[in-house]
């Protein structure tokens, strides 16, 4: 069944590449067009707090799109007024860079005479030095999709919501009244963002806490995307520029449960498919976060789309053109403790804390954690400090195992069998080959600060742009 799906998908790819179905041609080096090939990476506003990772640290020579996480859909229930706001004013546009230490161009800010500080100002500097770079604002995400169903419910609300997002992030009209006293104002962030990425997780579902969700969301999401495309084209005509519209879409066949997939994607420049979190630390087995191919031992093995190859094939069969498919890649893994049986065995993660910054307390440590912080994975790809690296041939993913790994948990020290599944340059190279072979648009990364100091993972995606 799985091979049949891939065979049909490959046939669909051939037809999708014909002139009648191909996406419009774009010029890679034109600021007025969408890039033909994409390596897109999320940069989160909280990166400046957690790892101390700044815009200047982004390896801009290895990607051409940055998705800034996140902008927030809002809704005033009393007045039924939709809105679109920044998530963290301080990190986004108020944080003063007093000297050039963390600045893109090595220069400190000109306090108090600037109106734009923080990440937004640094992104503007990064774009000035790299004219082919595009930056999008991503709206929503797992924790901030709360009001999407409400703002998308009626034509009046959709128009008002989209206008608010464009006013805030494309026209750059930021709130005032904070500190620094001159920060914010009309038009101060214009030119920072080249488009909008919709990250509604998920239409028709409560997910992390969506309000008034229902079956009508599925069609309303399509109408919302159409309204974004209409208004972005409108301001694009005004500014003489093409503004990007993309979306983060779920993996596997569940995607058609949430979205009118083909119609929704028609409005987009491309779709970023979240081909990860197939298994999470809240599951029942110590299983891969992302699978490249089908593994009969996996909890989701009954679904042939429950892996990267299967998901891509399913999207193609649903009428999504290859040139609009961007494959998601996680730069983090899953950690399972009390997992004596190793891969696909039982585990008990009691004591791990998703809010911890300590790598051995995290259910999902980053590649940076494994290589640069913990030192349990060498730059040569081999396990260290008691960890043995193995390769899951069926799923196409690496994993680490230590029968007696030390952990400093909130409840005290613990020594236990530990299994860690993650992405490495070899597994990411598989995605690169898939993208090139099927003529897909590119790859998307969550998220760039989670890469190792030597940028090993993003480097493995390099051939996508060539």
TrEMBL record:
This is chitinase. Its EC number is 3.2.1.14. Belongs to the glycosyl hydrolase 18 family. Residues 1-22 form the signal peptide. It comes from Allocatelliglobosispora scoriae. PROSITE patterns: GH18_1 (PS01095), GH18_2 (PS51910). One of its GO terms (biological process) is chitin catabolic process. The keyword Hydrolase applies.
